[in-house]
Design a protein that fits this description.
alpha/beta; six-stranded mixed β-sheet
C-alpha cells in the first residue's frame, strides 16, 4: 500500500517544531486536508513539553494561495470558513510562540495564518494581496486575527483594491513583524531568544499579546463565518471563482 505524501512536512529539532506547507499542486491552498494536517501538527507541538516554539514555513515560491477554490464551490459554503476560523484560533491559542517565515507569495486566506501567528518574518521574495474582492468575496474570517493588527487606512486600501504589496509595506502596516533580506538569520536570532524563556513565561506572555485577537474571535467569529458562507454561496462569487479557475476575467472586471 502506497503511503500518502503529506501536505505539511513536520520536523522537530532543538526544541522547535517546524510545520512546512508542501502542497505544490494547488500552491499550498487551504484545502480541507492541508488544514487538518496543520491543525494536527500544532496540537502535537502544543502538547509536547520539549517544544518551546513552532515555526510555520513553506516550500516553493508560494507560502499560501488562500482558499482551495476547487472545494469552495461545493454544496456546503460553511465548511471552508469554519475550518479556517478553527485553524487560526488554534494558532492563536497554541501556548508556544508561533513564528511564520515567508519568502514567497501570500494571498487571501493565507494572510489569516500570518495574522494568527505571533511573529512573522518576511523575505525579499514575499508579496501579499487581499484578492477576495476580485472574486466577489471579502476577507471575512481572516479579519478576526488581522483587524486588531493592521493600520486602518492600509486595511481599507488593500481590502478594497486587491493590490499586491511587498514585505516592507507589510511591515509598515502591521501584517509582518520584520522584512528581512535573510529571514533564516532573523529566525535564528528570534529562536535563540525564545529558548531563554520559561515555558510558563512564554505561555502567559503570549496570552497578553493575543488578548485582542481572542476578543475578536469571541465577539465576531460566528458573524464572520456566516458572512463568508453567504458570500461563497452567492451567484456573484460562484461566477468569480469559476472565472478564476478557468483563468479568464470575472464578468464585472473592466
Amino acid at each position: 500500500m502506497t503511503r500518502e505524501v503529506p501536505f505539511v512536512r513536520i520536523t522537530t529539532a532543538d526544541a522547535v517544531t517546524t510545520l512546512e506547507l508542501d502542497s505544490p499542486h494547488n500552491r499550498n491552498a487551504l484545502s480541507t486536508r492541508l488544514m487538518a494536517e496543520l491543525a494536527k501538527g500544532l496540537a502535537d507541538a502544543a502538547a509536547d513539553p520539549a517544544v518551546r516554539a513552532v515555526v510555520l514555513g513553506h516550500t516553493g515560491k508560494v507560502f499560501c494561495a488562500g482558499a482551495d477554490l476547487s472545494e469552495a464551490t461545493g454544496a456546503d459554503p460553511t465548511v471552508g470558513p469554519r475550518g479556517l476560523v478553527d485553524l487560526q484560533r488554534a494558532i492563536v491559542d497554541c501556548p508556544k510562540p508561533v513564528i511564520a517565515v515567508v519568502d514567497g507569495h501570500v494571498r487571501a486566506g493565507g494572510l489569516g495564518l500570518l495574522g494568527a501567528a505571533d511573529l512573522v518574518i518576511a523575505g525579499p521574495a514575499s508579496t501579499f494581496a487581499f484578492t477576495e474582492v476580485r472574486l466577489g468575496l471579502a476577507p471575512a474570517v481572516i479579519s478576526l486575527p488581522l483587524r486588531p493588527l493592521l493600520e486602518p487606512r492600509a486595511a481599507s486600501r488593500y481590502y478594497l483594491t486587491g493590490e499586491t504589496f511587498q514585505a516592507a509595506e507589510a511591515a509598515r502596516i502591521g501584517l509582518v513583524t520584520e522584512a528581512a533580506e535573510d529571514p533564516q538569520t532573523v529566525l535564528k536570532t528570534v529562536l535563540d531568544a525564545i529558548r531563554l524563556g520559561s515555558p510558563q513565561g512564554l505561555a502567559e506572555s503570549k496570552r497578553l499579546v493575543t488578548a485582542d485577537k481572542v476578543a475578536s474571535f469571541e465577539r465576531d467569529g460566528e458573524e464572520r463565518v456566516a458572512q463568508s458562507a453567504r458570500l461563497f454561496g452567492s451567484e456573484e462569487a460562484q461566477q468569480g471563482m469559476r472565472a478564476f479557475l478557468e483563468r479568464r476575467p470575472a464578468p464585472w472586471a473592466q
